[in-house]
Amino acid sequence: MRAIDIKLWRELWGMRMQALAIALVIVSGVSIFIMSLSTLDSLYESREVYYRNHHFAHVFASLKRAPLSLAKHIEEIPGVDKVETRVVALVNIDVMGFPDPVTGHLLSLPDNSRGLLNQVYLHNGRLIEPGQDNEILLSKEFANAHGLKPGDKLRATINGRSKKLTIVGITLSPEFIYQIAPGALFPDYKRYGVLWMARKPLATAYDMDGAFNDVTLTLSKGTNPEDIIDRLDDMLKSYGGKGAYARKDQFSNRFLSEELKQQETIATIFPVIFFGVAAFLLNVVISRLISLEREQIAGLKAFGYSDLAVGLHYIKLVLMIVGLGLIGGLFLGIWLGKGLSNIYMVFYSLPFMLYTLKPQVILAAAFISMGVSVIGTLYAVRGAIKLPPAQAMRPEPPAVYRATLLERLGLQSRFSQPTRMILRHVERRPFKTMLTTLGIAMACGIMMTGSFQESAIDYMVEVQYSMSQREDLIANFTEPTSDRSLYSLQGIQGIEHAEGFRSVPARLRFEHRFYRTSVEGIEPNGDLLRLLDTELRPIQLPDNGVILTDYLAEILHIQPGDRLTIEVLEGNRPTLEVQVVGTTKQYLGVTAYLQRRALNQLLKEGNAISGAYLRVDKRYEDTVYAKLKEMPRVAGVIIHDTAIQAFYDTLAETILFYTFITTLLGATISFGVVYNSMRIALSERNRELASLRVLGFTRGEVAYILLGELALLTLIAIPIGLTIGYGLCAYMAFEFDTDLYRIPLVLGQNAYAFAATVVIVSALVSGYMIWRNLAHLDMVAVLKSKE
Amino acid sequence: MSQSDNKNVVFHAEGLTKTYQMGEVQVHALRGIDLDLYQGELVVMLGPSGSGKSTLLNILGGLDSATSGNVTYMDHNLVMASEKELTEYRRYHVGFVFQFYNLIPSLTALENIAVVTEISRNPMKPEDALALVGLSERLHHFPAQLSGGEQQRVAIARAIAKNPDVLLCDEPTGALDSKTGIVVLEALQRVNEEMGTTTAVITHNAGIAMMADRVIHLADGKITEVHSNESRLRPKELTW
């Protein structure tokens, strides 16, 4: 081994603690990067494999009733691969000891099979045996929420008849990764569940022998689903088809895709910030390291080593440290990624998780960390190489300072000498000051994204459920019913007020753009459902014309005054043209609203309603639930309070975890940036500060010079950080906007206060550690040494 | 001019030893020093590297503590003093001049002095201190804009500006060429004569000894010889 390489190893060993500190910075940057990106890839990959292996359908359609023979014709549509018909119904479920109404989504399953398409994954228990009419499979979330297991029993009201069912297996399904009751906006595992039972008993109960009311298809490769959907819609039209839709519009899949898209946003923002900070710290530490080696560099040059050789020597040194960090980060990242993927596996109810680490992710991590450190090293080494050896071996000349801008503006007399030292030091290296400030600011900003989600969701719920939707319950009918049924509802003791609504699935079209949703006919002066304008004031719904959710108007590029085409996907499927008269602010879902009577007229039907919004006296809640369960017309009930509560319960953990991670990340970054900057400053200014101690300055007075700078930078960084945080939240809100929900950019004072507090506390902690370091200033040594 | 016993004793040291660990080796820097320094005298402590002269100066200046023995400054016991008392002692009584100047690079010449006078009880004006060392023209220059000799004169001005009772100089000309060194020594002598500040200069440069009232020779941590000069030479008359 060449002597210069032996030097390399010895020095690496000699500075092992410092090298370890640098390596740790790299480890954190690399591991976060690998963890985030590999988790995301794993999620995509696992979903893909899950869908493929379980034959998740490409096209879905539901209808009123069609003979099984139609399936043959569907199969003959060019491009269709497999077809499976089903009987599907919404039923009321009774779980022992749970009084609230529970909606069950009941699907038929061929005997002793997982189905042809959308195959269930058997988590535990067994499949339904042939001829067993009372056996069911139950979705895992619902089973867990109620502590149900194979062998347990529950009751379901199937087409008006109560039936006792035995759970034989607990399952997962690619069709119900996200389980949300029709009409609800949040998952509520206690009050909505998916059940599978044998086809025969189900068909018999609903008069579907030799018939079906639901069909799903897979397509052969390269087939455009839209073409198939058009053909299918034509075929199903006379059978009460409710409009076919593609996999991308399938509810569970859509929700999951949106969630993954959000994960993608987060998985890109955080590692980028973290890597940026790691790069900054690396640069600061390496620059300092090289400046301490100034004399050695001069020595090497004096012996005849070329600038290039010296440069390479230090790059090798740095690459060894970075390599160490990279390997450590890789392993830690994989470990964390696997852990996080498993958390997601449970969260999204995936039956398995295929951990996927793409080589390009590793390459990117290596490229970025090595690139950053080599650039940093070259920059620092260049300064040392430029000097002629003889000069480099003499003590470094005093650093060049000048009076700061503030002082030149005539404010000089206001500052004491130590304050001037702070200001001049800050201004002397504007780039470094800026980077330090930016680092602290980023930490502050990251933490705001944690509290942002919480306050945004609070605000969404507040607007949606206390200002717009003010009902206690929604009762959905099995089919459109005369509005006289409102009287029977109002007759139930405990129901104080009932408002009917008419809801039809429809395809809305404007110019070449279209969107599938439901059109809601509501009461013009309704008390339970109110439409709000952008200022959140109630809007008066006019006699004619339609009001759209603001986001829907954006999707369709339609404005008040334009005429909207409504292709109704129910009954005779009429196509209507209605003028848009306004938009309404809504954060959840997208819908078109008309007066209920106007919609009835357009549909050429009597005073029909699809369900009712109810206000209920809290004291009679349980009686009301029980009465509603007895009404055969009521298909399901949505209770908002409990739905919101359930949503918060599910979300609380996620939010808490997210807030914890962002806080930890933010605190680590601000501590890392502040503490490292101050450590370096202490090392650079050791001599200066020790001299002041010798001159009779107390530890406190000396600390002021260092910590004053820290305080100044922190105070500058906080408002910048709060602005960055606002920007990050705005970016996230923008990225997260979907037709399912829009996240309002709401940041409470506590979001700002929390972020600022954490930054201040971590600055105080690093300040305290620096204060302790100051006690060890070696006054004697520093006066003798040349630096 | 020789010092007589009736002069006030400023420093009194007795049986002073200092041992410290350097790597795996124990170094006996001082091996029993007995010494008195008198009011207003200029003393040169002469000795080769490792003779213990810097250690002695550091103990007298309250920068370091002795392993055993006793040192008093007037009525202050420096061996028993706490960290806080030593800081106060340095703040109000001692002026230091170092081999490498130790100026604050971010402060101008004037501000480097103000940084000390702002925390002193009875300081002179920083401008006056700089005038005393002949730097009235360079008040607003930063250290980076001053030559080595000028920086050292600023350091002397900074040391005397607080009107210290003693001035301790550690190799004040060590980093300077002889011509510049003489200018610096002249500044020191002027302060000693005009203000009567007790001054101790340590050096390994025997040529400087002739400007002192007394010369103390150190070797291997002990005082080997003390002699008084019959007459002090002006720095200009020194040769080295």
Model description:
The complex is a heterodimer of chains A (787) and B (240). Chain A is of the alpha+beta class and 787 residues long. Chain A has 22 helices and 20 strands. The two termini of chain A are 32 Å apart. Chain B is α/β, with parallel strands linked by helices and 240 residues long. In chain B, 28% of the residues lie in helices and 29% in strands. In chain B, the strands form two sheets. Chain B has a six-stranded mixed sheet, sandwiched between helices. A four-stranded antiparallel sheet of chain B has the order 2-1-4-5, covered by helices on one side. In chain B, helix 3 packs parallel to helix 5 and helix 4 (126-132) crosses helix 5 (148-160). The interface between A and B is medium-sized, with 33 and 36 residues.
Quick overview of this protein structure:
The complex is a heterodimer of chains A (about 775) and B (about 240). Chain A is an alpha+beta fold.
